[in-house]
Amino acid sequence: MYQTFTNAITDRQIAALTRESSDRQAAAERIESQRYRLVGNHVVSTAAFRFSETGPTMAAFLRSGVLTGLLRTHVGVDLEPVDTSYNYYDVGDHIGIHRDAPSCRYAALITLSPTIQPLILYPELAPLDGRAMHERIRAGRLGHEEHVTLPYLGVVVLHGSVVPHQRPTSTRACSVTTVCFGRAA
What architecture (CATH level 2) is domain 2-184? Predict the structure, then answer.
C-alpha cells in the first residue's frame, strides 16, 4: 500500500529541489474543482492547489537513481518515472479522495516543507471500481482512515493508482514534489 523511507534524501538535495520549486512557483497553474464527479470509471475529486513542472534539478535528482533504487529494492518493482510536479498548497487548499491516474502506478512524495499534514489513505475503498467508490464518497461511507506522515528528508512511496487517498485541507502553506512511476525500466 505504502512505504516510508526516512533520511532517504540529503539536506543538499532537498535544498536544491526547494530552490527549483520556489523559482517555479510564480508560474504555477491553479486547479480548482468544487465537487466530486465520475468521468468514465474514474473519480475526479474536489481540489484546490497549484502545481508547476519540475526542471533540471529534478531531472538530475532522478538520474541519481535514489528513487528508482528505493522502488526496486524495497517495493520490488522496476519502474521509471513518467511524470513529475511541484505541488503548492496554501492555507485552505486540498485534494479530495482520489486515485492517481493508471499511468502513475506508484507515486513518490517528497515534502519540501519541514512540517506538513499527513496524507490520508482509504484502504477499504481500494477494491472498489470508480462508480462504487464515488457512491461511497457521496454517502460519507469511507471506512478506515490511515494517516501517513510525510517525513522531511524522506520519501513516501504510495501505490497511488490503487489506494484512494487525499491531501487534507492545509492549515499552513507547504509544497510537495510528486514523482509518478509507471513505465517498466
Answer: Sandwich (2.60)
| Interaxial angle between packed helices 11-25 and 56-63, expressed in degrees from 0 to 180 and rounded to the nearest 10 | 150
Question: What digits encode the pLDDT tens for the residues 166-181?
Answer: 999 999 999 999 999 9
Residue spans of the domains in the chain: they are 2-184
pTM reported for the whole predicted model: 0.94
- Sorted by sequence, the CB contacts under 8 Å of residue 141 that are 6+ apart come out as none
Kindly report, residue by residue over 88-138, the tens digit of the pLDDT. 999 999 999 999 999 999 999 999 998 899 999 999 999 999 999 999 999
- Is the distance from CB of 82 to CB of 180 less than 8 angstroms? yes
Decide if 20 contacts 28 (C-beta within 8 A): no
Ramachandran angles phi, psi of 162, nearest 5°: -115, -45
Residue type present at position 14: I
